[in-house]
Amino acid sequence: MEYSPPPLFKQGPSALARLLFFVVLALALLISDARFQTLEIVRGVLGAGLYPLQRAALVPRDIFMGAADLAVTSATLRSENDKLRTKDLQLSQQANTAGELAAENAHLRSLLQLSQRATTQSLPAEIQYDTRDPFTQKVVIGRGAQQGIQNGSPVVNEDGVIGQVTRVFPLQAEVTLLTDKDQAVPVQIVRTGLRSVIYGTPKGDTLDLRFVPISADVQTGDELVTSGLDGVYPPGLPVAKVMRVDKQADTAFARVVCVPVAPVRGARQLLVLHYVNDVPARPPEEPDAATTAKEAKKKGGKPADGKGPADKSAARPGEKATGDKTAAEKPAAKPADKAPAKPAAAEKKSAAEKKPAADKNAKPQAAPGAKP
């Protein structure tokens, strides 16, 4: 008797056949979409239709995140507002004190008849890009000669010194950063007033305070500001802070390692200062007497004081004369250099021959008391 399932439980294609069909369909859709983008329209329609459902599903998350952000933002704003109020009060007090000190300084300078301090003008600028040389610490700003940037102008931000303008183009300028190995800034320690020069390092992360004696009072944490003695940087700009002091007995100077106060590499907006120094230029140095005498001797003339060779030869005992040697300083002639001596008979003969000639030329003198 042949067995056949009842119609109620009649099955379609087998599970293996359906699996193979769907696998082939998926591969065909993948290949056609990857090669010919056939499902882009279908994907766009499905995305537009499912977007409201996605937003509705994300509503609880958005509400929770918004409430958390509101709470955090309000707390942050309150704390920042309190800090700004405190800082505003401190700055107002410092402004009042600075105004009083400025008036007192102007009064004292007028009383002592001293010149006023130099004025400083600033020009804002923004860093555009770094230079291509990886071994230098330089950046390029978007201000140039047409905007009033001058070569050698100091560059600062709100924290302190950043660097110095070393090359000026019409619309751009190159700034050498404070940490460059070829950059030097004259500074002084705020606590003691000790002046020195700070240099960059090859690594570009620290600064080296050079020419500091071992006996100098330098401590970790001391603040360094510009001294203003070079006429380039205004005095009082924050530069660095002492990080480590190494004193060795076999060296005359201590090794002082410092870190810059301002974020040299992290700064974006800068200020280019135009420092006008009213201090007169240093007078030319006058040459000393020894240099003048040497130059006059080379030229073959007399020195500037008007003394001749005879004055030069009159040197004190034990000193060497600067001019020509005198006859006393010249060595005596050797016996071999002298001419051979004449015999005594020849000398007598020549004397006798010369005597009559002399008598002929001489006039006869009258005896005392005789008449002519």
UniProtKB/TrEMBL annotation:
<comment type="similarity">
    <text>Belongs to the MreC family.</text>
</comment>
<feature type="domain" description="Rod shape-determining protein MreC beta-barrel core">
    <location>
        <begin position="130"/>
        <end position="273"/>
    </location>
</feature>
<dbReference type="GO" id="GO:0008360">
    <property type="term" value="P:regulation of cell shape"/>
</dbReference>
<dbReference type="InterPro" id="IPR042177">
    <property type="entry name" value="Cell/Rod_1"/>
</dbReference>
<dbReference type="InterPro" id="IPR042175">
    <property type="entry name" value="Cell/Rod_MreC_2"/>
</dbReference>
<dbReference type="Pfam" id="PF04085">
    <property type="entry name" value="MreC"/>
</dbReference>
<dbReference type="InterPro" id="IPR055342">
    <property type="entry name" value="MreC_beta-barrel_core"/>
</dbReference>
<dbReference type="InterPro" id="IPR007221">
    <property type="entry name" value="MreC"/>
</dbReference>
<feature type="compositionally biased region" description="Basic and acidic residues">
    <location>
        <begin position="302"/>
        <end position="362"/>
    </location>
</feature>
<keyword id="KW-0133">Cell shape</keyword>
<feature type="region of interest" description="Disordered">
    <location>
        <begin position="279"/>
        <end position="372"/>
    </location>
</feature>
<dbReference type="GO" id="GO:0005886">
    <property type="term" value="C:plasma membrane"/>
</dbReference>
<protein>
    <recommendedName>
        <fullName>Cell shape-determining protein MreC</fullName>
    </recommendedName>
</protein>
